[in-house]
Amino acid sequence: MIPAILPTYNRAPLSFVNGEGAWLWTEDGTRYLDMGAGIAVNALGHAHPALVEALTEQAGKLWHVSNLYDIPNQQRLAQLLVDNTFADTVFFTNSGTESCELAVKMARKYWSEKGEDRTTILTFEGAFHGRSSAAIAAAGSEKMIKGFGPVLQGFVQLRWGDADALRAALTDDVAAVLIEPIQGEGGIRVMPDADLQALREMCDETGALLILDEVQCGMGRTGLLFAHEWAGVTPDIMMVAKGIGGGFPLGAVLATENAAAGMTAGTHGSTYGGNPLACAVGARVMELMTEDSFLPRVNAAAGRLRQGLEGLVASHPQIFGEVRGAGLMLGIKARVPAAELVQQAYAQHLLTVPAGDNVLRLLPPLNITDDEIAAALDRLDAVATALERVV
Ligand SMILES: Cc1ncc(COP(=O)(O)O)c(C=O)c1O
């Protein structure tokens, strides 16, 4: 018999009832160290007092009004994003998938308004942009699209890291290039700064719009507010979600005035996007992340975690391969099935996330403490030691 919840997830037999910072508790009081943070969602940890305050204060005033009216919290959050990024304008969504939908629509509308037949969007193997029909077509993997055809047309997947293929495909009839600066689900694969700079130049030469998917790698995760800032280039359109809501469902599409030119009244909308509750939390997240001390602390924590992981790779070469990633978006290429590492980590009361390419992902809250990093490293050491006994 089909379960009451549609069985699209293979869930671990774990259920949490409380959270605080980097910790989660099960009903029986067992405490787990959360190095997954809801897959890069709980950027400020669980139950951050300032976010609880922002949410409950707004909840006591007003939950929902239609986008037919001005929403002050939305205005406030949009201004914070515009003031702190390349963007001139923002549309709020409820998820990364919805941000993908709008990014694709916006790019195509841009060319349609210009009267040009440019609809093709270049994407990359190993990408993950969400689960809607457009997002699975963009990623294009057999695993995601099988059985869900007909697949939305107009996406061409290129090999990750193949600069020649990209140059050949990026002709002047391409509408846009859509890429994650760091592939998350694909296995923490980092696009080198020089490649992102070259891609920006190629887009400028052909006029193609550059769409960055920073749903997972954005919002402070790499030690700058957005990952592309390390390369010193800016996109035309950017997808955001996950960390921006700190655990409350919220996403956004950020764009330049030029890229957004086609999106006039009536061309797009959302019932809940930019809802007062979500934006109250999102604005508070942005305020905290733009405090002077926030990103330097993320970089310090990232250095500490990375150094510890390199040490684990050196001491457990049978279990761990290389360390990948940037900031607090780190992965360890596993020499045993990554899923087994995740299972063993449960036994150490440690939450990690598997990724493609047999990688174990670590995406802790960005405000994780040094002691918590040390505890995570100790637990990973114990995971590797336990597995060494059976390998
Ligand atoms: C890079 C990236 N884009 C898009 C998405 C889709 O986001 P959501 O699950 O919020 O729809 C994800 C989710 O994991 C992601 O990692």
UniProtKB/TrEMBL annotation:
Q: Where does N(2)-acetyl-L-ornithine bind?
A: 131, 270
Record text on cofactor binding: Binds 1 pyridoxal phosphate per subunit.
Q: Which residues carry this modification: N6-(pyridoxal phosphate)lysine?
A: 242
Q: Under which EC number(s) is this enzyme classified?
A: 2.6.1.11
Q: Where would you find this protein in the cell?
A: Cytoplasm
Q: Which UniProt keywords apply?
A: Amino-acid biosynthesis, Aminotransferase, Arginine biosynthesis, Cytoplasm, Pyridoxal phosphate, Transferase
Alphabetized GO MF terms: identical protein binding; N2-acetyl-L-ornithine:2-oxoglutarate 5-aminotransferase activity; pyridoxal phosphate binding
The cofactor required is: pyridoxal 5'-phosphate
* GO biological process, alphabetically ordered: L-arginine biosynthetic process
Q: Which residues bind pyridoxal 5'-phosphate?
A: 96-97, 128, 213-216, 271
Q: What is its main location?
A: cytoplasm
Tell me, what's a Pfam family for it?
Answer: Aminotran_3
List the pathway annotation: Amino-acid biosynthesis; L-arginine biosynthesis; N(2)-acetyl-L-ornithine from L-glutamate: step 4/4
Show the CDD domains listed in the entry.
OAT_like (cd00610)
Substrates-to-products reaction catalysed: N(2)-acetyl-L-ornithine + 2-oxoglutarate = N-acetyl-L-glutamate 5-semialdehyde + L-glutamate
UniProt keyword annotation of ATP-binding present: no
Keyword Nucleotidyltransferase among record annotations: no
How would you summarize the oligomeric state and partners of this protein? Answer: Homodimer.
Q: Which NCBIfam families match?
A: argD (TIGR00707), PRK01278.1 (NF002325)
What more does the record tell us? May also have succinyldiaminopimelate aminotransferase activity, thus carrying out the corresponding step in lysine biosynthesis.
Regarding protein family, the annotation reads: Belongs to the class-III pyridoxal-phosphate-dependent aminotransferase family. ArgD subfamily.
HAMAP family, sorted: ArgD_aminotrans_3
The record's listing under PANTHER family reads:
AMINOTRANSFERASE CLASS III, SUCCINYLORNITHINE TRANSAMINASE
Q: What is the protein name stated in its UniProt record? A: Acetylornithine aminotransferase
What's the name of its gene? argD
